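Fold this sequence, please.
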Amino acid sequence: PNIVFHFFTGKTCANCREMENYVWVDPGVKKILQEDYVMVALYCDENTIELAKNEWVTLKDGRVLKTLGKRNHNYQIEHFNANAQPLYVLMSADGKVLNTPKSYDRNVNNFIKFLEEGKANFKK
């Protein structure tokens, strides 16, 4: 299936690394992620990559976001009303959010339920 697993993360995000090192390595989680999802990392602290001028984002207050990280972070805030990482969002390829986005939770069973719910909603 074309289910996209977006994860808002950061190079310096300790909770993101904990999720990767304790939850994503679980055989059940790993199998679902590898077989059923296309994974897309959106780094919110990647401020060394300058965007082309046509990709800049101008905020309502007039500030201009010129780096990939700032644009990713703004996308997370505006579309998912969340400011902290990690944040996991399951979407269809056409951009439909499949279930409630999930944040930091080291409970493997909760994460599997989240992934399975996304798959089930995708099939509807």
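The first strand starts at residue 3 and ends at 9. The chain has four helices and six strands.
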